[in-house]
Predict the structure.
Amino acid sequence: MSRIFARGGAAAAILVVSAQGALADLSAQDVWAEWKAYLTSTGYTVSGTESISGSTLTVSDVSMVMPIPEEDGSGTVSLPEIKFVENGDGTVNLLLPAEFPVGFEFSGDGEEFSGKLLYTHDGAPLTVAGDTENMSYDYRSSKVTVTLAELAADGEAVPDGVANAQVTLNDVTTTTDMKIAEVRTYKQALSASSLSYDMGFNDPESNGNGSFKGALEGLSFKGTSTVPTGLDAPDMAALLEAGFAFDGTFTFAGGKGSISGQEGSESFAMESSSEGGSVAIAMDNKHLTYDVSQSGTNVNITGSEIPFPLAISMAEAGFNLMMPLAKSEEEQDFALGVTLRDFALPEMLWGMFDPTGQLPHDPATVVLDLAGKGKVLFDMFDPEAMEALEKGEEQPGELHALTVNQLQVSAAGAELTGTGDFTFNNEDLTSFDGVPAPAGEANLKLTGANALIDKLIQMGLITEGDAMGARMMMGMLAVPGEAEDTLTSKIEISEDGKILANGQRIK
């Protein structure tokens, strides 16, 4: 899928990619040649019938074929016509009809899918300026809509009403500045006042249906990319090795969405809204990074299997991941983070296990921030290596160091916080039952635990015997803190396998 993403992004960028820029003469042929060179460099085979009339170059029956090595097949995107019009001032207008079909075909593993998307916009041109080494694109449209018009599987047309999809962008502005050399670099920006989507399916055989609808407001995107040239039928592994990289951040000011489905007598529905968020993705030949965040999230869930409606809210939700990509005998950095801040459950759900309101119903928070070092011992872009990994014939990697920058879990009046720092000996897999032997320390703080245990006893959720066992365990691992109902613990693991809690050896 990573190859499909990289190359599919190249084809999609053609329709709405853009830029501002330089002052120099360009011909229509220059722009078309650059398009072909760019797509060819990322693995496409590009063809079209060219004709020239005055200052206009028309390319008809445009075909872009993308190999899909994972599926041992290919994908094809086709356009009926593109016009390149020289404006007489050194710039070129790229014209697409106000409404036109975009055909697509995908095949692999004995399966075939094909169809048509109907692309509609206000007919505004994409203006290209610069020269053959520096090109800039500028595109503005009041509205862009992409609608699924036809769909077929294995040569049979999917009946009308079985599947629908439409995506609409309003007040679209895109710009791209491009430097063309042995390695091409791109600086891109996009903004839109809103994006809406409406997708669904209706399966007459299973009597099932589903719907996915939503909208985002105040969209923007900024990013850069580097694309190497001169590769022969490049795949993702070859592109990365040659220097392919991208770094982009997508933000939105607010959004809402709904998902619903039904199969027979069973149904499910979910509605959500948020006050904005961002998605940042970066990739090069060493690392892949994700950083996703969203604020002011509200979710409402109903369904035939759910006894009552659920209303959930979060002040902040986030996820970040940084992982090494390259197989290496050297240690590489990684990171992982999860944030669920002020996660509130509905009172109706609280009432099921706390009907008398003895527990604090304050929103819960979970924060985990990890960083570390490890080795990647397989090539994740090699199909044979991936197959061997799935069969258990190869070890994916080794963990060498782990740092807990932040741990916070708070709920029902209790809170656990902590930090930690450990190294791991991959030569010792016996001391800790197959796990690389750790060495280091963790510092933990627990507040409100005894009060929570007392309330759980009063509610009948745990017995006095259960509580005694829990308190004995806390007494072994922790010591009283300065504040009331506070425990602290320093857990140390030595390189020779000893485990100490607050200086007392427990193993």
